[in-house]
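Researcher: We're teaching a course module on how sequence relates to structure. For the next exercise, students receive a sequence and then see the predicted structure as tokens, so they can try to spot secondary structure elements on their own. Here is the exercise chain.
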Amino acid sequence: MPASVEKKENSLVSDEELMSRFQSGEHLAFDKLVNRYRERAVSVAFQYLHNLEEAKDTAQDVFVKVFQASGKFKNGEKFAPWFYRILVNHTINIYRRKKVVRFFSIFQNEDDSGRSSLADVLVDPQNLEETIDLQNAVREAIRQLPEKLRSVVILREIEGFSEAETTKILKIPSGTVKSRLFHARKKLKKILEKSL
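Model: And here is the predicted structure for the students to work with:
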């Protein structure tokens, strides 16, 4: 089979189908899931750890955990929220153990959807120097948030997950996601008003 045809065929297979195949003993299916999720896993881990090598190691550890926990994945369940829940929980555990100050990148995951970044909502910089200062201020402000609020900000504002996806990843009600995001934005605005 030509490589282009195989690539197209692979892209048509859902994550859930690949997980089902893996549970049935097809180990190549797991490799395909790893290839699909590796970059995003590193990106999410980097938002917490702010160290690329640690983020890569964390992503690798998470795939081992997913491999080991594959038997717990239920038929009919969506793979992405299940995977990101494992990823976020593992990364938070590493963050807690190390107790190192972490910084978060705000602008690396902008897409063409028209979604405003957190910084766009808070301030409208006029030049490059102001933009750099703003990025630093926003990173520091996010670092100061309590962990529960920080997780919602990272998933919703930085990674661009929907409210429903964030609900599944963090295993909290939709109303709690809204409430935490509301309080996080208020706290961030107050912190930034003092520093800008």
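Model: If you want an answer key for the exercise: Confidence is low (pLDDT under 50) at residues 99-116, 121-128. The two ends are 58 Å apart (CA to CA).
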